[in-house]
Amino acid sequence: MKALAETDKTKLKRGSKRACFDREQLYAIFDEAHVVHVGFVVDEQPYVIPTLGWRMGNQLYIHGSNGSRMIRALCSGVECCVSATLLDGMVLSKSAFHHSANYRSAVVFGRFREVKEVDYIESSLYCLLEHIAPGRWEEVRPPSEQELKATTILAIELEEASVKIRTGPAEEAPGDEALPVWSGEMRIRQQVSEMVADRNAEAFRTPDYSDAWGTRWEVKSS
Q1: Which Pfam families match (predicted)?
Q2: Fewer CB within 10 Å, N- or C-terminus of the chain?
Q3: What pLDDT does residue 221 have?
Q4: What average pLDDT does range 34-41 have in this prediction?
């Protein structure tokens, strides 16, 4: 798989040793994050909007109401930046100054394009559902023509992008290693802990979507 190219925008100026241009790492972060943050400027006012994001091949997709500020701005072709961060752990040092975090973050620059072909719109929404709940598309009512008309699907190429990763222990200051205090990593991960039925769904079997969540699926069967 072709590595990501380093550009003026993606080159890390601080913490360059944590830079990663592995495309598979980029894909893995966006696949796991589910929520992305889209940064753009309208009338000299910057905005950063969190929204659901999902990947199909080398493109990242988002969707929203036709009337939203973000959708209108991105449809106009404005330059934007999309990011996602996975917090893997808090790094506890022997000194207050050297506490840190272990994380994986991805950033992509470019412009979104509107997905207008009906087949691609439906396939992208199908991919979104499969990403979070495999098999659910076949179980639920498909989107109506009116619902599709009120929604815009946007896609951005994952080309001008970079990844930044931190792992490992704290970088202790010289002499601090011997201080009599615990140090290490407080590990953190996102997980599915419970499936809570709506009142009108209590009679139905609880679905199992562990194929999408892997080891992060920790729902205990009743």
Answers
A1: Pyridox_ox_2 (PF12900)
A2: C
A3: 58
A4: 98
Q: Provide the sign of the torsion angle of the four alpha carbons 65, 34, 57, 42, taken in this order.
A: positive
The model carries a pTM of 0.93
Chain segment 41-54, per-residue pLDDT in tens? 999 999 999 999 99
Q: Which domains does the chain have, with CATH numbers?
A: 16-183 (2.30.110.10), 191-222 (no CATH)
Q: Which ranges constitute the DSSP H helices of 22-117?
A: 23-33, 69-75
69 and 47 in contact (C-beta within 8 Å)? yes
60, 155 contact by CB (below 8 A):
yes
pLDDT tens digits along 136-177: 999 999 999 999 999 999 999 999 999 999 999 999 999 999
CA distance 111 to 108: 10
CA torsion 83→87→93→99, rounded to 10°?
40
Rg, the chain, Cα only: 21
